[in-house]
Amino acid sequence: MPENQLTITRVAGHIGAEIGGLDLAEPLEETAVAAVRGALLEHKVVFFRAQRLDHGSQIAFARQFGELTHAHPHEEAPPEQFPQILTIDPDRYAKKYGEDFRQEYHKRQYSYFAGWHTDVTAAVNPPAASILRAEDVPEFGGDTQWTNLVAAYEGLSAPLQRLAESLRAVHRFRIPAEEDSKRAERVNANLLIAEHPVVRVHPETGERALFVNPGFTDHIVGLSAVESRRVLDLFYEHLTRPEYTVRFRWRAGDVAFWDNRATAHLAPHDLDHLNVRRTLHRVTLIGDRPVGVDGRESELIAGRPFLAQSAVVS
d(Cα 257, Cα 192) in Å, to the nearest integer? Predict the structure, then answer.
């Protein structure tokens, strides 16, 4: 593809761009790979419309940007012959964990910003990036949102930036003690816990990102439970402010590619009461250990690094 056919169009003030002129099902030229990588680093999430990917070509596209992880630390049954693919489908989770899965999930929604997360930060080496493609989506609803964690850090006052830079937090898959389910059994049999800096230095751009998220961050090290919750709530409310976000309306064939080191995202919750189908497929690129402003790396507390091989204990 001639380089001059590639277009990059910003879609929000702090985050997001749509890339046109590429057929992701075909190998990209080096100049196109570099352009996509550059756009990803600048805009944090990039979107491609009306692509014709299947499992194999999605994996091939992703491998042009790095090595892929296994589907998920708790996934024991990815699509046959495609262990890198995580299929996101509410019906699949209901069949896997029982019909009460959705109800139990919603019981854990303790605030308006619950549900926002950065992928697999319970791992000591969270994915560097994620690539999600839409197979089936409803005619309305089901949008995904992303937020720019670099812009969120930069939007803090100087005293709060210094406080955040001095802190470290424990991230884990959190299952309430009272929950007795197949999902709880699997998570508890495959503990994944890591300690990360609250402000992460991006390994490629050098930017500083507010690296906490409601989905996985459990507590801040060294603070009381009350102090930790209130400081985290302050950061969560800040990083989910609308001005740092972008909202994407899916159509079948669309692809989103985001920098997991500098973003958090929110899956939709507006379809649970409707009889509609929404099926997407995700792959993730192996990441490195986050590094704080002080140069200290993240530390593994439980589990293994998130790599290409499955480590699931059944």
Answer: 25
